[in-house]
Specification:
By secondary structure, this protein is of the alpha/beta class. Helix content is 47%, strand content 18%.
Length: 445
Amino acid sequence: MDNTIVAISTALGVGAISIIRVSGKDALDIVNKIFDKDLHEFKANTINYGHIINEGKVIDEVLVSVFLAPKTYTKEDIVEINSHGGIAVTNKIVELLLENGCTQAEPGEFTKRAFLNGRIDLLEAESVMDLIEAKTDTARRMAINGVDGKLSKKINAIRDLGLDLISNIEVNIDYPEYEDIEVMTIDKVRDFSEKLNTSIDELLKDSESGKLIKEGIDTVIIGRPNVGKSSILNKLLNEDKAIVTDIPGTTRDVVEGSIRLNGILINFLDTAGIRETDNKVEKIGVDKSLSLIDQADLVLLVFNNNEKFTKEDEELLEKTKNKKRIIVINKMDLDTKIDKEFEDSVKISANEDVDPLLKKINDLFELDKINNGDMTYLSNIRTINLLKQAKKISKELITSLDNDLPIDMLEIDIRNILDLLGEITGQKYDNELIDRLFKNFCLGK
């Protein structure tokens, strides 16, 4: 990290301003080569008016911010140039900086440097990206808790218990003649394992909420042709997204749309009506509909109140029985002909009101509870998988205790748990993982 990097931190295009960020030990010296004032004369955390120049010609009128190490985002000297927001002028300034000694920053390299220089941990770094990508205010609140380090404190609190236990085990190994120390240590190991399991269970349970907040609820609308799936979608979205006719098989492909319900994104997928068909195109749509059932977080299984229950309806009931689902009886404004009762169905008329369906979704996922929680949730696969591995070892630790394994053997499992928790926050990391993780960031962050 001896080089000084540069990148455009705002979206490239026509706008009021562009921000060009420079970070590294030579940041001030390099920018000085193209700025008409000496940045070394300015105090830290100041914004300074001037011009970008090249060979005596003015390139742009700018404001230049100076931030001095170590009190910066990367813990390096940082200079930010606020130029006019045009593609040509922004690219020209970056070109001049590259010519004068800067290196083009890789995606996420500023945040990577913040992590490697010890300003933030890995959970906080991942939360930065979550904050940028947040699509709802709830997702923003969850991400900012990660950026502020609240989630890291939870993980570190668990890890500290393990570190204290390791110290106790070392004393036991160094002084084996004291039997009371061994008894006390075994009790501490069991207590640690039980507390660890409880803490991990809570984090994993909360992570389900984190996933919903971050990614939303993928909801597939399934049913036979003409049960009103497209009408339901249009009413939910409050727009004519899907074509609605009384001709069976009108919907041939998946139609998508999203709404926000109690701060959570609900991603609806309207599918082709499921039935036996000789039409090649319609059959592709039916097969695609069936495949989406397995991928969905929620299935809205729609039946027609104005028709008798059919064999195809029974097959759909069977196929979705192990999925989280809501049975929707549609067309309640028409004569009732359906000859099957359901205990917990939602009865609506898509032409009039779908509020009961939205309430059912809200209650099923306890969205009120999620939205009013403390928002300190894990939400990505990497950290959740590491937690699951730690829990597995913790359970094995209890089995080892029950089988009277020696203390030094127990220590191996405890150290493995600490390593996994350390990987979550980045206290222990693999260079390849770090490179891969930060490549998912946007350029200039």
